[in-house]
Amino acid sequence: MADMRCQMCGKTNPDDLDECQFCGARLKPLIKPSQPDQDQLWGNSEKDEAVPDWLRELRGEEKDSGGEPFGDLGGDVFSGQPAPEAEGEAIDWLSRLGGQEASPSQPASDEPGDEMEFPDWLSVASGAAPTAEDKIQGEPQEEGDPDWLRRVRERQQEDSVEENIPDLPFGEQPSSVAQNEQLPDWLSGAAFTAGEAVEAEPADLPDWLSGSQPALSPFAAEDEETASIKPDWIIQAGGEERLGQEIAQEPAQAEPIEMPPSDLGFSPEEAEVPDWLSNFNAAAEDTPHAAESQVFDLGTASPFGEKVLPGGLEPEELPEAPDWLAGVSTAAQESQQPGLSQPASEPPPDLARASLPEWLEAMRPVESDLPSEPFTGSPDERVEGAGPLAGLRGVLQAEPDIARVRKPPVYSVKLQVPEEQQTQLALLQGLVASESKPKPLPSPSTVSVPYVLRLVIFGLLILAVIWALISGGQQALGTGDAQNFPELLAFLRTIESLSPDPIALVVVDYEPGFSGELDLAATSVLSHLVSKNAQLALVSSTSNGPVMAERLVQLVNKKLKLSNDIVYHTNLGYIPGGAAGVLSFASSPQKVIQYDLNGDIVWQNNPLQDQKGLENFSLALVITDNPDTARLWIEQVGPILQEKRIPLLMVLSAQAEPLVLPYHSSYLNQVSGIVTGLRGGVLYESLSGQNQIPWKQWGAYSLTLLLSVILVLVGGIVNLFSALIEQNKKNKSEGKT
Amino acid sequence: MSLVDLVGAFAGFLLTLMIASYIFGDNGLFRLAVHIFIGVSAGFATVIVLYNVLWNQLFVPLIQAPMENALLIFPPLLLGTWLLVKASPRLAKLGNPVLAFLVGVGAATAIGGAVFGTVFPQVGAAVNAFDLQAIRQSGGNQIKGLFEALVMLVGAVTTLVYFQFGVGARSKSLTASTLNSQRPPWLDVLSKIGLFFIAVTMGVLFAGVMLAALAALIERVTAVWSFISDFVRFLFPSQ
Predict the structure, then answer these.
(1) What whole-number distance in Å separates Cα of residue A574 and Cα of residue B52?
(2) A517, B121: Cβ pair inside 8 Å?
(3) Which residues does A510 contact at the CB level (< 8 Å), separation at least 6?
(4) Least CB–CB distance from A668: residue in B24, B124, B205
(5) Which residues of A touch B225 (CB under 8 A)?
(6) Which of A543, A639, A701 has the CB atom closest to B49's CB atom?
(7) Which of A53, A317, A484, B228 could lock A124 by a disulfide, CB 3.0 to 4.6 Å apart?
């Protein structure tokens, strides 16, 4: 399968592909160009007869080499850098165009018989610099020479006087060139005569010379129809001598023109630019767009190397460019940039407008596609800043926004609370915080009315006691009529009615703090019992009871020493369990308490050796300061005692008497007698005949009691008046409002 | 005065002054005295329980006569040991049956004693107070007896009414004052009378407390005065 060469990247592709597999360019143009196919380019047995000799030779060489017509020149053409290995080959065929030997500096030789006349600029393009000696005076012009050719020759002749530039007839080569180079047939002469080209061997002429084939491409398809058409530039140009001069004059003005890379291959800087080419270049210089065109920059190195001209021509020998070519180039530029293009040099008026060949027509951009105005882009368009298109406007974003790597936006996770709600929230938080925070108490003053009043009252009381102690209690009040205290009288009667040698169950359940109030009454009662030869069984329902019982016995002994009596007692200890323990003790005391406080067996020794339980006792005496303890013994033990007809007596504190007195006042007489506090002790002491009243204490008690009553009354009166005053103030303030 | 008595008296004197310093406000001396009192009381109670209860009433009978006292000792010993698991947070639930037994027995004892020892006798006494014949037989004045009975009855009833805080049914016709009181007007009158009797009772109780406090103050001041006198006499025996 034959390969196709991509016009863009120059790489070979299979023939069956429509697009290049490397760059994606179309291999087969949409518009059928009038180009020779590969068979025609490389020669086919059927069509070899129509292929010119020079072309035939090229095909043969390329086939032998197995490469592309120009090898890898395509890739290098556009870059402007000639391929080193292809450079020689390109030079060879160009040299062959001029009939010279194949050499980098000399074109390949050509058949002598195929020499054709070609203008100097073409011979110069093959590498040979035309000299004055080489300037051919020209062969006798044939009558069939076109006008333009005649004009070229005339121009060359005129210029050769000044510049000694040999004016070579069109198609003729300088002598040096003729000696060293062998130009191909189409350059050696016959192809540049219109008539001969048409009549003799139109197929041997290059297309661009014959007008039927594209002059820029050696692979242009030969078209018999276009072969008869004479290019206008051939007709109009004229003067091959002028062609070389113009080329030589303006080598530096050569501007990039749109030509295939594998064309002339000469450096315009060193080649003599013909007039037609110079006109074209002048027009191109005036247009800024031309400066940007870098397709075929003749100012750069050509792919075929610098300073290489077809046919070995020097730049000065290049014939003048036909006007049609200049006109075509100018028209092309104007169509692209009509606004910017300045009026180029208009073609000479005597030149008829040439009919463009098909291949040139195909190259012409469609007018509808041509922008009417130069596209400058909208100033508002974004300028690309990355990628190969950096700096251009109106291009698609190389980095779309989607593909741009940027930090994702951070969304706040905080609750968006309006300002109003924040204010309310602050208020609520303040309320909640104030609830937990303790309110700051006003700092109390070091000296306040209650503090002073407290000290005053304490001082008065202390003074009263001290005064009573000092005075000996002479101010003691009377104990009052005993008839006013029936519970005391009943207590006394009960004691008096006891059987001889009674066994008294004494419950000691008062706290040490109340010993000052109860010691007198308790010792008085116990002394009265001891005087009756009673034996005491001490028990307690509180933990401090046993030690208080022992203390009480010591006090009684101390009091009785005076009478030389001894207290016989048994300390049973502590009854645990509260109410349940007391009830169990009342039910079966032998089981609850088996050992006394000293560790001795209680129910086997005197006085409790009978083991009758609670029936052993003659009476039960409860000494307590707590009304609950008294109620406990009344509720738990009272029914059993009443059942056994054992009296229950109590020695109580003043604070417990109001709550225990109903038990005595009831018709059931649950409590037989009550002795209350210090007063009761004094009364009992006096009624029992012991008369060991502590007068000092009684005097102090009387005095402090009186003082307390006075203070309470005074305080009550003051408080009452204060309340009345506050009420009046409040009423007045309410009345005003 | 022996040395023991002297040391005891001095300790009592010092502690009394420390407690009396509370008149000037809470201070470290008062707190020290209170802490000493609490510590001594707790220690003494511990000794009494260990010696008088556990040793004398549990271990000694078990050692001397285990078979005779087995039924009497082993159940309380078992339950008491079982109750020790309450000290562990993890095993506290295991001691709940014993605790329930104790609570049940205590509640039954208390309720039985209250009902049969207080409520019934006091109600009977309140009713029996209107027995004019018994008053006559006791030699008392019947009118006075009757008046006392009425006062006692009114006092008891109104005091009980005062502690009734029932909420009546609300209706649309009730006024604001009625809603605030939430009981009928006649009930409010009785509650106010009961409030009077309660106030009188509170006063009597306060008076008794005050008398006890005065007696304690007098005893302490007397003790301090006696100590000072004895101390001075000890220091200056000639005077």
Answers:
(1) 7
(2) no
(3) A518, A548, A623, A624, A625, A626, A653
(4) B124
(5) 466, 469
(6) A543
(7) A317
Measured between beta carbons, which residues in chain B are less than 8 angstroms from residue A454?
23
Looking at beta carbons, which residues of chain B come within 8 Å of A668?
121, 124-125
Per the CB < 8 A criterion, the answer to whether A213 and A226 are in contact is yes
Percent of chain A with pLDDT over 70: 52
Best A520, A574, A670 member to test B by mutation, with max B CBs in 10 Å, is: A574
Q: Report CA-CA distances (Å) from A575 to A506, B54, B66.
A: 13, 11, 22
- The conformation of residue A215, written as its DSSP 8-state character, comes to T
Cα torsion angle, B107, B113, B116, B122, sign: negative
Q: Which of A546, A638, A708 is facing B214, going by the closest CB pair?
A: A708
Separation of alpha carbons A124 and A173, rounded Å: 8
Query: Is residue A265 over pLDDT 60?
Result: no
- Choose the weakest-confidence range: A21-25, A605-609, B199-203: A605-609
Q: How far apart are CA A129 and CA A311, in angstroms?
A: 10
A579/B109 touch (CB, cutoff 8 Å), yes or no:
yes
Which two three-digit tokens encode residue B148?
A: 């006392």
**By the CB < 8 Å criterion, does A458 face chain B?**
yes
> For each of chain B's 239 residues, which pLDDT tens digit applies?
678 888 888 899 999 999 999 999 899 999 999 999 999 999 999 998 898 888 888 888 888 877 777 777 888 888 989 999 999 999 899 999 999 999 999 999 999 999 999 999 999 998 988 988 888 888 888 888 899 899 999 999 999 988 877 655 555 555 555 545 567 888 888 989 999 999 999 999 999 999 999 999 999 999 898 888 888 887 888 75
Find out whether A167 and A157 touch, Cβ atoms under 8 Å.
yes
> Is residue A442 over pLDDT 60?
yes
Return the pLDDT at A673.
Answer: 94
Q: What is the mean pLDDT of chain A?
A: 70
Q: Does A678 touch chain B (CB under 8 A)?
A: yes
A480 or B200, greater pLDDT: B200
Q: Verify whether the Cβ–Cβ distance B215 to A701 is below 8 Å.
A: yes
Q: Which residues from A are below 8 Å from B218, CB to CB?
A: 465, 516, 697, 700-701, 704
- For B200, the closest chain A residue by CA position comes to A658
Predicted TM-score (pTM) of the model is 0.56
Contact B204 A658 (CB under 8 A): yes
Interchain CB contact of A657 with B (< 8 Å): yes
Q: Measured between CB atoms, which of A458, A546, A657 is closest to B208?
A: A657
Question: Which of A454, A519, A700 is opposite residue B23, by nearest beta carbon?
Answer: A454
| A72 three-class SS | coil
* More confident: A455 or A122: A455
Residues with Cβ within 8 Å of A94's Cβ and at least 6 positions away in sequence, in order, are A107, A108, A125, A126, A127, A265, A304, A308, A309, A310, A311
Q: What is the pLDDT of residues A307-354, one digit of tens each?
A: 455 555 555 555 666 666 655 555 555 554 444 444 445 556 667 777
From the list A451, A595, A667, which residue is nearest B125 (CB)?
Answer: A667
Chain B residues within an 8 Å CB radius of A655: 205, 208-209, 211-212
* Measured distance CA(B88)–CA(B86) in Å, rounded: 5
Those residues whose C-beta lies under 8 Å from the C-beta of residue A690, and which sit 6 or more positions away, are A524, A527, A528
Instruction: Write the pLDDT tens digit of every residue in A398-437.
Output: 666 666 667 778 887 887 888 999 999 999 999 988 888 8
> How open is the CA angle A13-A16-A18, to the nearest 5 degrees?
75
Instruction: Confirm whether the ipTM is greater than 0.95.
Output: no
DSSP states along A414-471: S----HHHHHHHHHHHHHHHHHHSPPPPPPPPSS-HHHHHHHHHHHHHHHHHHHHHHH
